[in-house]
Amino acid sequence: MAYSDRNLLGVNISATYTSAEAAALGIPLGTLVTAQHGQIYEFVKALSTVAQYDCVAFLADSSTSNAFIQQVAPADTTNGALSYKVGIAQVAIASGEYGYVAINGSQLQVKVLVACQPAVPLFLTATAGSLDDAVVSAAGVLGLIALASATSASSVTCIAAFPHVGFLRAA
Question: pTM score, two decimals?
Fold first, then answer.
């Protein structure tokens, strides 16, 4: 498991926090930390339950005036259209809780569907949190590449370079 290489009090990128615990830490949403292999993690709030290795969409909270605060949900073809960037949860985060998701680096894991191939474009799917190389939507995940093929629906090693959703136009 990755760990932070910064001397920030209270940083544990493998931990998750309740609302009260997050408030006590005093770490603002959106705080970035660098891990031992150069990965960059962002402190976020889960809008719904996030499983380990889910690809997550950063989404706006309709209950606040701040359109883009750091809240995430498992990415799919529906919320991908609303997302301004994606990350990869390396630990599970319960709905309404806080934790860190990876937004850049190598030696990360991401969920993909069965028979997903390495080194090809990845796309959001109807399966929340999982990506695939099959073009099932126009929502490509730019800046994220799988390094191994999946023989079953599972997680594979990937490299993330500040991934975001890009929409492909029909020719």
Answer: 0.88
> Does residue 72 contact residue 130 with C-beta atoms inside 8 Å?
no
Report the SS3 class of residue 59: strand
User: Quick one: tokens of 75?
Assistant: 């990415």
* Cβ–Cβ < 8 Å for 71, 114: no
Element (H, E) at 7: none
The residue among 75, 10, 68 whose CA lies nearest residue 44 is 68
d(C-alpha 151, C-alpha 162), whole Å: 26
**Do the beta carbons of residue 110 and residue 131 sit within 8 Å?**
yes
19-72 tens-digit pLDDT: 999 989 888 889 999 988 889 999 999 999 999 999 999 987 665 555 556 799
Using alpha carbons only, what angle is made at residue 13 by residues 9 and 18, rounded to the nearest 5 degrees? Answer: 85
**Environment class of residue 111 by beta-carbon count within 10 Å: exposed (0-12), middle (13-18) or buried (19+)?**
buried
Nearest Cα to Cα of residue 161 among 89, 92, 86, 93: 86
